[in-house]
Design a protein that fits this description.
Low-confidence stretches: 272-279
Shape: globular
Mean pLDDT: 93
CATH topology of the largest domain: Rossmann fold
Distance between the termini: 9 Å
CATH superfamily of the largest domain: NAD(P)-binding Rossmann-like Domain
Number of helices: 9
Strand order of the largest sheet: 3-2-1-4-5-6-7
Order of helices and strands: EHEHEHEHHEHEHHHE
Length: 279
């Protein structure tokens, strides 16, 4: 029996007057982060690589959110610089950065040099560029907070995923180094490592295999102590916590948002595992 999904409460006004950049904010986890941040009074510049960014922007406009959308590839160094410049020109400051856009290149023995370069140039290298570019605006604002989106894939071995897992592993070490170097400027840097979250990619996989979410959530959910996959908002809310002043003494750390995935050993849930309150 999976655990119930709680209703998430908005902390009204928590980010009034604050400005965030969210890369890969047009869908999935990024979109949920933008939406939750705006609900709490903030303004966001978000990026995306596909056409759906404009559709997302219209949806945000209809909801009354203050957002700006830029379309581009995070592997493009000039685009990374333009993101920061546009944010400052539009909103006058940058308080927070969420590095979320990441190349999903998952290959092993068949990976070419081009595949490896894509994994890193649109992954940890893009994260590094964004942090380098945002430091001066954050210093001008008196400090800030950065969240680098990583993954359970940074901690475990997975079949045919040399490129993706190596790149995500690099993010976790990058976060620690960034946190150390930026602490004197009152800039905190942490990373969030999600488990299996329902997104565009998992929806595609569920429909390819047949049965959709109704079939596959209970099956894939068995990899997690909570017996279900996560929702995008369940990653967004912890991300907002790390950005907020509630996390003012947290930096250089990893927040696992994985439903217990990485803490569960090879015995799994066990054949006789019982959840309190279940039949």
């Amino acid at each position: 029996m999976p655990t119930p999904i709680p209703i998430h409460k908005v902390v009204s006004g928590r980010f009034d007057g604050k400005v965030a950049i969210v890369t890969g904010g047009s869908s999935g986890l990024g979109r949920a982060i933008v939406e939750e941040f705006c609900k709490e009074g903030g303004k966001v510049l978000f990026t995306g690589i596909s056409d759906n960014g404009e559709t997302t922007k219209r949806a945000f406009d209809a909801a009354g959110y203050q957002t700006t959308f830029l379309r581009g590839d995070m592997a493009d160094e000039e685009f990374c610089a333009a993101i920061i410049a546009t944010t400052v020109a539009t909103y006058g400051a940058v308080n927070y950065l969420v590095n979320n856009a990441f190349a999903f290149t998952a290959k092993a023995l068949t990976a070419t040099t081009k595949d490896w370069m894509r994994s890193f140039s649109a992954g940890p290298l893009a994260y590094a560029r964004m942090v380098r570019n945002v430091v001066e605006p954050m210093k001008a604002a008196g400090g800030g907070a950065i969240v680098n989106m990583s993954s359970i894939s940074a901690h475990i071995a997975q079949v045919d995923r040399w490129t993706y897992n190596a790149a995500k592993g690099a993010v976790n070490q990058l976060t620690k180094c960034q946190a150390l170097d930026l602490a004197p400027f009152n800039i905190r840097v942490n990373n969030v490592d999600p488990g299996w979250i329902w997104s565009n990619e998992t929806d595609k996989a569920a429909n390819i295999d047949g049965g959709g979410r109704a079939k596959w959530d209970p099956i894939w959910g068995k990899y997690h102590m909570l017996r279900r996959m996560g929702q995008a908002v369940e990653v967004a809310r912890p991300t907002l916590f790390l950005l907020s002043d509630d996390a003012s003494f947290i930096t250089g750390t990893t927040l696992m948002v994985d439903g217990g995935y990485c803490s569960m050993g090879p015995e799994g849930l066990g054949e006789t595992a019982v959840i309190a309150g279940s039949d």
